[in-house]
Amino acid sequence: MIESRMMADQLTDFNKILNDLGNIKVKLEDENKYLLLLNAFPKMFEHFKNALLFVKKPTIILEEV
To answer: Over the stretch 12-34, which tens digit does the pLDDT of each residue have?
Structure first.
């Protein structure tokens, strides 16, 4: 993600990419979507990203991010 852009704009672009992938029948599991989103966060979200990655839950839900 580009750090100078608003987070909402970047999330909109991320969701558009996921929709485009779905339209061409690319199936991504929610956990993979979650990891892609976390890795796309700018450096200033490093602590937030680490907190979510190391949470003690058996599964990760994209909507929680």
So the answer is: 888 999 999 999 999 999 888 88
Domains of the chain, residue spans? 7-64
- Three-state secondary structure of the chain: CCCCCCHHHHHHHHHHHHHHHHHCCCCCCHHHHHHHHHHHCCHHHHHHHHHHHCCCCCCCCHHHC
- Predicted TM-score (pTM) of this structure: 0.63
Place of tokens 């029948």: 25
Q: Quick one: how far is CA 4 from the chain centroid?
A: 18
